[in-house]
Amino acid sequence: MTTLHLAGFPRIGAKRELKFLLESYWKHDIDETALLQGARELRQRHWLLQKGAGVALSPVGDFSLYDHVLDAQILVGAIPSRFGFDAATLTTARYFELARGNHQQPALEMTKWFDTNYHYLVPEWEANTRFSPNPAPLLAQLAEARALGIKAKPVLVGPLTLLWLGKTKGGDFDRLSLLPALLACYAELLGALAQQGVEWVQLDEPALALDLPAAWLAAYAPAYETLSGAPLKVLLSTYFGSVAEHAALLKALPVAGLHLDLARAPEQLATFAEAWPAGKILSAGVVDGRNVWRHDLSASLDKLEPLCAALGDNLWLSASCSLLHSPFDLAAETSLDADVRPWLAFAVQKLNELKLLQRGLTQGRASIANELVGSDFARDQRRASPRIHKPAVLQRLASLPADADQRHSPFAERIAAQQAWLNLPLLPTTSIGSFPQTAAIRKARAAFKQDELTPAAYEQAMREEIELAIRRQEALDIDVLVHGEAERNDMVEYFGEQLDGFIFTRFGWVQSYGSRCVKPPIIYGDVARPQPMTVGWAVYAQSLTDRPVKGMLTGPVTILQWSFVRDDLPRREVCRQIALALNEEVLDLENAGIRVIQIDEPAIREGLPLKTSQQADYLAWAGEAFRLTSWKVDDATQIHTHMCYSEFGDILPQIAALDADVITIETSRSDMELLRDFGRFSYPNDIGPGVYDIHSPRIPSEAEISRLLEKALEVIPARRLWVNPDCGLKTRQWPEVEAALTAMVSVAKKLRTQLESAVS
Ligand code: GLN
Ligand code: ZN
User: Fold this and answer.
1) Nearest-angstrom CA–CA distance, 322 and 97
2) Distance between CA 533 and CA 548 in Å, rounded?
3) Ligand 1: does its nearest atom lie under 6 Å from the Cβ of 432?
4) Among 642, 669, 693, 695, which residue has the most ligand 1 atoms within 8 Å of its CB, making it the best to mutate?
5) Does residue 600 line the site of ligand 1, with CB under 6 A?
6) Which of 113, 108, 117 shows the shortest CA–CA distance to 162?
């Protein structure tokens, strides 16, 4: 019989219970006992859900109070030495200090878990890092599971992936040199699990889906040889991409089973199924753990049946990866669009899909006849639905001229045409878009959404905020103003709510990091813009001032990247549709007299595929989509873009190819390091490196802003340089903002005078 197993469940809980537990604990509203009790109840509930779905091997160790990669560091007794903590005796309070920092030490750095929106805490490897097994927390959870009658399979980050994900600290050394010591530790951990009677352990090696250096790949065989001594069975798990190029290596590894992500990379199955080693388990990750779409049971059975015939009990079934990345339960969505709802499946539904597949495989399709009819019906209805397919959108895209992603003239001519009416001084000042989202703004929006405030009253409230923002910017003497984004709760949601083809859930949260969750919109159909989305606000703002007001849009790549995207159309096509809708908005803004327009693309870097071989293609279509937003735009209209969060050093040519007239970027946290790359590459258009970090309430001194700008002037010609903060200011308070911007403008003016007198 085909075994059903799971790699992980959304630990945050159906109602984000973990978030609220954590935040209450941090605020000292509940004590440690209550926190740990709440966490235990969540684990128990999730295991019982799995049991109900017939999961034969449930994950243990997938739950974490903050992050499973942090837990893995503790498990191997290797937490950064700078904290001076001992992993074996780590208290809950200190656990959170690692995750969130304390008075002496900043938190562990956070970065994205492969190409997901989940952030893990980055291990810090030092030349003298020592490992020592610390299995107690894991064993305690194992005991909890067993007490419920759950057959548990501990799930651990694999040793090579764990090493790979960390960064080296304190001098240059090869972190791979830590592998032998780490393996000795893993061997002891496996031994401890075996002693508890654990039969299966899952070691996650998603690093195999990257382009690992040869030395790392070569380390896999000896590493797993070392671990094969433990008296238990290892399931080596890969996900987030194809590992077909390592098929020979993986088939030969001395492990009892291998898991493949067949949602992300279905094509790799053929390579593995052929001459699959006798007696080895092949775990087919068929149900997509990363998306929200209902599984096509029939299509899946078509693939699985021959596999099952060939492998028998050695075929296992699972989701493609941990369900951590999936929202919890569709049943909670009581007011979701009734047409779209049958096309969706969240974690609880995915469990059920797995159960049905298993039953269909072992007892025949007749045993799930009704469910197959339901699945086929939903699939067919989705394929044909007029809710999804808008011929007009496809026609418009098909009839785009070949140069739709090009401005009329080259940058040099455009900037001259822009400067002719903008008349900006040297080192023009601006901001990134948002101003503080005050309690009053949030209250007004909430009241409006709950029909407690009429549209007219809401509009009036927002207009007052806009006016306030304009007056304050004028008083600060900023050159290019913004309206402040008071009306936006979120830079993607605001647009998604107004575009056709998007729906929003009420509880479709997924963990981003720690207690933080995001609720991505779902793009289910062709994207179109029924009416202008931002024009009214921008025009009102412009009516209040003689200075130019910058229109503010979220770019197509960022909207795509921060949504759950339909799986029946290539991402690039969805992105083009969004771009075309945004282009209509850009043209409407321009028509209405808004002739500086910023199109934010903070997420462009994070959409980069894991495999180098696919990156050029992505960057090409992402760039094309961005440029498409400015189709037909007049030369004299100035297009800005903004990016943050990541290193761009490696994709500068592609960023230059976006051909925005002005780019503002986050640089202050890296002390303008990034700017050196821009200088070396001699970035051709205007550029505004952020001159202070908006992520902290700290008010920058004129001296430090001045120092950063002088550094910038070393690599950027003065007439190309803009002066602005790092990012939007929505999380800040007005007094901080006013103080910081006062300093910023003052420095810009002083430098400007110096530069001008140097010229004359
Ligand atoms: N215009 C947005 C803002 O200012 C940009 C946010 C971002 O870069 N993430 O809030
Ligand atoms: Zn930003």
Assistant:
1) 26
2) 20
3) yes
4) 642
5) yes
6) 113
Give pLDDT tens digits for 77-102.
Answer: 999 999 999 999 999 999 999 999 99
pLDDT tens digits, 664-722: 998 877 777 778 888 888 899 999 999 998 888 889 999 999 999 999 999 999 999 99
Expressed in angstroms and rounded, the spacing between residue 203 Cα and the centre of ligand 2 is: 36
Rg (CA), the chain: 27
Q: Which residues are the active-site residues?
A: 695
Give the whole-angstrom CA distance, residue 606 versus residue 583. 23
User: What is the rounded distance in angstroms from the CA atom of residue 545 to the CA atom of residue 551?
Assistant: 14
Is 727 a pocket residue for ligand 1 (Cβ < 6 Å)?
yes
Token digits for 43? Answer: 């684990």
433 lines ligand 1 (CB under 6 A): yes
Q: How far is the CA of 466 from the centre of ligand 2 (A)?
A: 20
Q: Residue 630's closest CA among 580, 583, 593, 578?
A: 583
Delineate the domains of the chain, giving CATH numbers in brackets.
3-384 (3.20.20.210), 418-759 (3.20.20.210)
**Closest CA relative to residue 638, chosen from 393, 447, 323, 413:** 413
Could you tell me which of 201, 66, 74, 93 has the C-alpha nearest to residue 136?
74
**For residue 744, how far is its CA from the centre of ligand 1 (angstroms)?**
19
| Residue bearing tokens 């927002």 | 462
Question: Could you give the CA distance from residue 234 to residue 218 in angstroms, rounded to a whole number?
Answer: 19
